[in-house]
């Protein structure tokens, strides 16, 4: 695979964008008492993973900061996120350009 690494600084507006629909999530472990185990949270802002999934990326179950996107022609794009910084690699230049444009909005 012929690839390079790129670094992006992610804008906070992109990380914490408004949601268009009502989204529920399980309460993270450690944030509830025993009598609240069956309750859920309503998200007020988008989670970064939601945005990446909406762009076609799959989130790693082993490392939730690692995302990958395969294209039908066998090319892929890989990204790793830390706070508001992102490292992007892969051999799909169209995916990388689309991601860069999306992050700039």
Notes on the structure:
This protein is an alpha+beta fold and 105 residues long. The protein has one domain. Helix content is 22%, strand content 30%. It has helices spanning 12-15, 48-54, 93-104, and strands at 4-9, 24-26, 40-42, 58-59, 66-70, 76-82, 85-90. A hairpin with a 5-residue loop joins strand 5 (66-70) and strand 6 (76-82). The relative contact order is 0.24.
**Helical amount among residues, as a percent range?**
10-25%
Query: What is the CA-based Rg, rounded?
Result: 16 Å
Major beta sheet, specifics?
5 strands, antiparallel
What shape does the CA trace take?
elongated
The unreliable regions are none
Strand content: 25-35%
Spatial ordering of strands, largest sheet = 1-7-6-5-4
Secondary-structure element order, N to C? EHEEHEEEEH
Q: Mean pLDDT score, rounded?
A: 81
Concise overview:
By secondary structure, the chain is α+β, with helices and mostly antiparallel strands. 22% of the residues lie in helices and 30% in strands. It is built from three helices and seven strands, in the order E-H-E-E-H-E-E-E-E-H.
């Amino acid at each position: 695979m012929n690839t390079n690494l790129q670094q992006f600084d992610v804008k906070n507006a992109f990380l914490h964008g408004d949601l268009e629909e009502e989204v529920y999530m399980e309460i993270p472990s450690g944030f509830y008492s025993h009598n609240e185990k069956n309750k859920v949270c309503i998200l007020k802002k988008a989670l970064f993973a939601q945005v990446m999934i909406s762009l076609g990326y799959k989130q790693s179950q082993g490392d939730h900061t690692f995302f990958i996107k395969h294209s039908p022609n066998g090319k892929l794009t890989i990204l790793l996120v830390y706070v508001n910084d992102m490292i992007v690699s892969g051999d799909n230049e169209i995916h990388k350009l689309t991601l860069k444009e999306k992050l700039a909005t």
